[in-house]
Amino acid sequence: MRTRNPGDARRVPARVGAALSTAAAASWAANCGVGLAARRGRRGSRWPHHALYTSTCAWTLLALAACAVDGRSRTTAALLAPALLPLAVVPRVRAGGTGHVVLAASLAPPLLGATGAAWAAARAGA
Fold first, then answer.
1. Which residues, at least 6 apart from 19, have a Cβ–Cβ distance to it below 8 Å?
2. pTM here?
3. N or C: which terminus of the chain has fewer CB atoms within 10 Å of its end residue's CB?
4. Would you state the pLDDT for residue 126?
5. For the chain, what is the HEC assignment?
6. Are 107 and 86 in contact (CB under 8 A)?
């Protein structure tokens, strides 16, 4: 049986960071799909695209906070932090343009990398 450190009560379990990272990546993937539909002229996809963008930002910030608080998930937090810049810049780039698509696609490495690292840490019992 593993003995608990006094600081363990304040730590966020690694699986929480993994679940939040997964939610951020899933929200981003759904937003890419809705954004593609909007780019192809599908009517009624503008507000869902904005709602999913807000959801992606919220999940990403929650995952980053959970991983930063947990000292064992600092690698996940370091992988997730670069996603903040594209998330902040993408609304300022003309929608439908190539720059908007490239910025949105640049979120894949940090989101998917952090999700993989978070689940690896959770499986390892970190």
1. none
2. 0.86
3. N
4. 54
5. CCCCCHHHHHCCCHHHHHHHHHHHHHHHHHHHHHHHHHHCCCCCCHHHHHHHHHHHHHHHHHHHHHHHHCHHHHHHHHHHHHHHHHHHHHHHCCCCCHHHHHHHHCCHHHHHHHHHHHHHHHHCCC
6. yes
